[in-house]
Specification:
The structure holds two protein chains of two kinds. Chain A is an alpha+beta fold. In chain A, 36% of the residues lie in helices and 21% in strands. In chain A, strand 18 and strand 19 form a beta hairpin. Chain A is elongated. The termini of chain A are far apart. Chain B has one domain. Chain B is globular, with a radius of gyration of 20 Å. Chain B starts with a helix and ends in a 5-residue tail after the last helix. The chains are: A alpha+beta, B mainly alpha.
Chain lengths: 602, 368
């Protein structure tokens, strides 16, 4: 029986087995030998991702080495589009786990749509620990989501010095298109304001790179190698944080600005603008509500009142007039004018602030008591164009060149200016207003601090400089900012002394407008100013702006200041105490070194 | 009821050794394939070894009874098998969108796996007399076997477990071919064969199965990610190059780029880690094993044994070929385990029972 069974079927079977083996071998030869290297490369590409290691930004220190801005680790949530398996599962899942809208996530993904799909898109910065834990626990269900620990900008002093330090924030679409940001990518942080913006090139480090092995869900399995990032350079500021804190405290709940300069170098010791903002909010990705709150705030917390706020200088301007008039010989020490409390000119009467008048008054008492009528006369004798020239030679109205972005120019009128702007001739009556710093005179606090420094230095001003030096992460000094002279005018010693004595008298002589702010330990010189504020939209009268410019010590000045309090009333009562506090603080700290501890912000 | 020493002597030691080597390779490969799972390899390996021991016990049981006795009772096995397949549809556990498992006393198994050897026994019992008389099967002769095949086929495809269904159909066709067919029967079967894809596409296949076919035709079309996985499987095998990445060193499966890499896509793990050389060795072992199964059929004492052995050879051949071709993208993705290599207790036990039947036939080849 068995012998008769046709074995041809088994021959067919053997043939089929041979064909099967041949087909398999040809296919494997093709895949593993012919295309093996390509396949190996594809498998490597699959598993190896190049990830950016963000370099920490440079640190900012005050003059005694206290940290004003540094970096701390924060947890950031990313989505890598390539690793998403089911779009709505990942996006909705993440929206449920963290405090973020679904639409926000989609917006962020859209914004980065021109990047390759393997580029991780930052969805949320600085997520709290409980959200990190929730994401970690649900990672399997939200493929594509990852958490990175990255350096985050931190400002331990919070709102203090905010306008000088500025803030960092994520680069936006418009900025990405700009030439200066061509080597930035979405999600990068850039300085957007203040020193952060001005010194972006120094502060920004060089990002590192690491090659990591990821699984099919994009989770990092291990790091293969790493190019360490290089931290940004540090900035050492001229700021004295003790004084800064004193000023910030004095100005709490006020609106205004205050700046103090080192008269010998132009170094900025104090720069305060109120109301302020908390730069930490920007660093951790400001929420829409917070941003709306800041930009719609009527008190404009983002405005740096020291460099961008323009106000009529009021009586502080009289210092410039007095100096020029003396220099030109328009008046001398003994020239007197009669003040009866008013000054009839044309068909109106310009008032002196003192109703009864000052009687016969010469330049010294006119400065000390801030007699308006005296300066109406001086102003008319000088004429508007000579007033413009003196202001110009001191540098008033021009940019001081402080190392902050967005500084505003002031305005000192002249006949040429009025012709050009309004096509009208200058009227003498306007000169009367300008003589006491009203009318079309607009100056910023930083410019007025230069006026104070001008008198203190006897005709020299320096460019205000916030940063003293740039130091590399290993401690090498890269750049030192030497003092730069802004203006240098030769003045007659006796004229200078007259004005200086006048300013000293303002604070130290009975009857001086700032006599209340005199100090026992050190002599301070100054000049008050009270400038009419523009009426509000509703037409109601707002309180005047209070000014005080000062320098100290009177004999050998080392610090020049300007303080402005918006709607503060009189310079003597509102602004002068700020300068007093600075001077007091500065010359006390020299005796007893005070340990001021930065209160931890976070 | 002792197994007689002479029969023990006639055990097909070649088949046993070949099978053990394949199983050994399977276990080794499984250690690597399951190492990336959260729970680790240990549980998988233990379960696989328990199934192996159970399978060995069943081999002893199966070889104890004469295969003719077993074939005589095959319709009871068939009815039992159908019972469980129906039970699966009613109370089966759902995993990965399919209802394939049933759990009894805490042990879960896949009844469809056991339908494969049962079908071989039933058909052999049905057709061995025709074979002995050397009469080619007429159209009428194949109606009964086809009906008996289609009942479990439809039930299994409903689970859905298209892979097992396909293997059962192909095995039935192979057995009928082995018995011999009339020319007219060939003609009818071939014309049905040409219509089958059309019928399957329009009436039988589920959307995800259609997508697999579409992604097979165009791997980059990627409907629902099937093309992506097929591509990752190809990359895995290809990246093994000549000598492979080495044991435990495959990245494609470790990093989860390939789904089911411990079951249906197990070959991608082996191909990636052992390369061309290892794959050639593995294929040779399979071809040699199947060839040995066919030799059991050739040497069988009677036609019943020959058909049974041939049927079992067919099951193993189809599973091996379709599984590997699927991994290297020469056929559409369909869930078929690689015998002795893939993880899965039911598949392993079913394969071992089949081997037990082969040993049964071969040790009784000199019996009169």
């Amino acid at each position: 029986m068995k012998e008769e069974t046709p074995t041809s079927k088994f021959k067919w079977c053997n043939l089929i087995l041979i064909i099967t083996m041949t087909v398999l071998l040809i296919r494997l030869w093709d895949l593993q030998i012919m295309r093996g290297s390509e396949m190996r490369r594809l498998s490597e590409q699959n598993r190896i991702r190049i990830k950016k290691v963000i370099a920490p930004r440079g640190i900012m220190y005050d003059r005694s080495g206290r940290v004003l801005a540094d970096t701390r680790p924060s947890f950031n949530v990313y989505i890598t589009p390539e690793d998403i398996k089911d779009f709505s599962q990942t996006v909705d899942g993440l929206a449920k786990l963290v405090d973020t809208d679904r639409d926000d996530i989609i917006d962020k993904l859209k914004a980065a749509s021109r990047m390759p799909p393997s580029f991780p898109v930052k969805i949320k910065s600085d997520v709290p620990m409980d959200e990190v834990a929730r994401i970690e626990a649900h990672r399997v269900y939200i493929p594509g989501v990852s958490i990175q620990i990255e350096p985050k900008r931190n400002y331990p002093y919070g709102e203090m010095l905010a306008h000088a330090l500025g803030y960092v924030s994520e680069i936006n679409d418009e900025e990405l298109k700009m030439k200066e940001y061509k080597d930035y990518s979405p999600g990068d942080y850039i300085g957007k304001y203040g020193l952060e913006k001005n010194y972006e090139n120094y502060l920004r480090g060089i990002d590192g790179e690491k090659r990591v092995e990821v699984d099919a869900r994009g989770r990092e399995v291990r790091t293969l190698d790493i190019i360490e990032p290089t931290a940004g350079n540090s900035l050492y500021l001229n700021i004295d944080m003790d004084l800064q804190m004193t000023v910030e405290k004095t100005m709490e709940n006020k609106k205004g600005g205050c700046v103090a300069l080192d008269t010998k170098t132009g170094g900025v010791l104090v720069l305060a603008s109120r109301p302020a903002f908390d730069p930490n909010k920007f660093a951790s990705g400001i929420t829409k509500e917070d941003w709306q709150k800041i930009i719609t705030d009527k008190s404009h917390p983002l405005q740096n009142r020291v460099t961008q706020g323009r106000y009529p200088p009021g009586s502080t301007f009289k210092i410039a007039l007095a100096l020029k008039a003396l220099e030109l010989g328009v008046i001398n020490e003994r020239t007197t004018f009669l003040c009866r409390g008013g000054f009839p000119f044309g068909n109106r009467v310009f008032k002196c602030w003192k109703k009864g008048g000052h009687g016969n008054i010469a330049v010294h008492r006119a400065i000390v008591e801030s007699c308006d009528v005296f300066f109406y006369n001086v102003g008319l004798k000088l004429g508007i164009d000579r007033i413009h020239d003196i202001a110009d030679s001191i540098g008033l109205g021009k940019l001081t060149g402080i190392d902050l972005p967005g500084e505003k120019q002031g305005l000192i009128p002249s006949t040429a200016w009025k012709k050009k702007t309004y096509g009208q001739p200058w009227y003498e009556g306007e000169t009367v207003s300008v003589s006491i710093g009203q009318g079309a005179v607009w100056l910023t606090p930083i410019q007025l601090s230069e006026l104070s420094a001008f008198v203190a230095n006897g005709g020299t001003t320096y460019k205000p400089q916030l940063v003293n030096r740039v130091v590399s992460p290993v401690g090498k000094v890269i750049k030192v900012f030497e003092p730069v002279i802004n203006s240098s005018v030769k003045l007659k010693k006796e004229n200078l002394k007259l004005v200086q004595d006048g300013m000293r008298g303002v604070v130290n002589e009975p009857g001086g407008t700032a006599y209340g702010s005199r100090l026992q330990t050190v002599a301070m010189s100054g000049k008050t100013g009270t400038a009419q504020a523009a009426s509000s939209e509703k037409g109601s009268h707002l309180a005047d702006h209070a000014w005080f410019i000062a320098y100290a010590p009177s004999e050998e000045p080392s610090i020049a200041m300007a303080a402005l309090v918006e709607h503060g009333g009189h310079g003597s009562s509102a602004a002068a105490p700020i300068a007093k506090a600075i001077t007091e603080g500065l010359f006390r700290t020299k005796i007893e070194v005070k340990e001021a501890k930065a209160h931890e912000n976070r | 009821m002792r197994i007689d020493k002479r029969r023990l002597y006639h055990l097909d030691w070649y088949l046993i050794l070949n099978g053990l080597i394949l199983f050994g390779i399977g276990i080794m490969n499984l250690v690597s394939a399951t190492s990336s799972f959260y729970s680790g390899s240990y549980n998988f390996i233990i379960k696989q070894l328990i199934a192996f021991v159970l399978g060995l016990i069943l081999i002893i049981v199966v070889t104890h009874y004469d295969y003719r006795l077993i074939a005589d009772n095959s319709k009871w096995f068939y009815l039992g098998g159908i019972f469980f397949v129906v039970l699966v549809l009613i109370i089966g556990m759902v995993a990965g969108g399919a209802r394939r498992w049933i759990s009894i006393l805490g042990i879960s198994f896949q009844p469809s796996e056991f339908m494969k050897p049962i079908m071989v026994m039933v058909l052999a019992n049905m057709l061995y007399e025709k074979k002995r008389e050397n009469i080619p099967l007429s159209l009428r002769d194949i109606v009964k076997p086809m009906v008996w095949t289609f009942i479990p086929f439809i039930l299994i495809v409903k689970q859905p477990d298209l892979g097992t269904g396909v293997v059962i159909i192909l095995t039935t066709l192979a057995i009928m071919w082995f018995v011999g067919l009339k020319k007219s029967t060939y003609a009818v079967l071939i014309s049905f064969g040409l219509m089958a894809p059309f019928i399957a596409w329009n009436y039988l296949m589920k959307p995800y199965q259609k997508m697999r076919v579409l992604s097979f035709i165009n791997i980059d079309a990627d409907p629902a990610g099937f093309g992506y996985h097929a591509k990752q499987a190809l990359i895995a095998v290809g990246s093994g190059k000549f000598l492979g990445k080495g044991f435990m060193a495959g990245t494609q499966h470790k990093l989860q780029f390939i789904p089911e890499h411990h079951t249906d896509f197990i070959f991608t793990v082996f191909g990636e880690e052992w390369g061309f050389v290892g794959s050639v060795v593995l294929f040779s072992l399979f071809i040699s094993f199947i060839h040995r199964c066919l030799k059991v059929a050739l040497d069988a004492h009677d036609e019943l044994g020959a058909i049974m052995a041939f049927g079992i050879a067919s099951i193993i051949y189809f599973q091996f070929t379709i599984n590997v071709l699927m991994a290297i993208h020469l056929v559409p993705v369909v869930g078929i385990p690689l015998p002795l290599i893939s993880y899965g207790g039911s598949s392993l036990v079913s394969t071992l029972i089949s081997i037990g039947l082969l040993l049964n036939i071969s040790m009784r080849r000199y019996m009169f």
